[in-house]
Design goal:
alpha/beta; two-stranded antiparallel ribbon; 7% strand; binds zinc ion
Amino acid sequence: ALVDFYCELGDVYMADYPKFDPERHLTKDVVRRAVIPGSAGRKGVGDVVTSRSCAYSSKMMNDSITYPLKMVTHTWGALFRDLVAIVVTDALGEREFKPFGQLLDRNPAALKEMLQFSGMSQTRYWICAFSVCQHASICGGNPHGDRDSVSGEVHGICDCGLPKAFNSTEPLHPQKQESISCEINKFSDMMKFVAANDSMFEQVIAVDSSFSIFSRAWCIAELAEAHQMHMRQNLVVPSQADLQEHGDTLRHIRVEDMEATRPADKEMILAGIKDKGAFNASMQALLTGKDGLLDAFNQSLDTLETLKVVGRIARQRRVSELLS
Ligand SMILES: [Zn+2]
């Protein structure tokens, strides 16, 4: 469904100027211009509601309620194509997404065929941009004046009128003092809940081309959270060479250097970490230490290489043929 959605960009959604540009439009542009309008409630004749505002995933899944098998930790400030390519790459059991990103634009039909052939085309991923109802929070406002990455025009807002719930919206949880109805303060509850019910629940760490994920406060908080819960964590990166190049930055990662769109979020995240020195040391170890995520990444490439999975070689050959 995600690849189909991607293929509709520039046609069903984001067809007007500035038309969807895979090289320049970021996830946040796609949320404003495709995810939100595509999941807004509609009224028919005589103002009768024909569809409710919902999370885009509800629309994709025909309102059926299912558990995700994996969650994707990603940043809205990265190319949307990277995000889709990362999910496809992970579904195919691969770790380097560059060639699959190129295929998405040049031959999505071939990519869909590969996914079907792998048997993983229906794997369910939780992706905040799709799985959170944007109409219950951000759709009706644009307080930071977010602009289209191509035209620089300020993004419009949605007038669906669905009641909004932010972190301070009453009623508040008596102990946590956080809004009960708000969805966006419950990422860690969602992770705990799904992980408690499914020991195979995995986190996919979407390392976009600019490696911006490692400078986002929310993403780092999610990484630490998943590690604490002993969830399996997998990196998907542009290429192994790119990862090596950024190794030094990751070795010196510090939570104090992270950014968040809302300064209040950064404060909240920092306030939640009592010993920042210890947190930084454990993040650095998680990423670049022995048996850390980088190590595991290199090992998984080695394993894929050594196993010489039959289908994998055929697929690699097909990908390079299609891209040549
Ligand atoms: Zn709305």
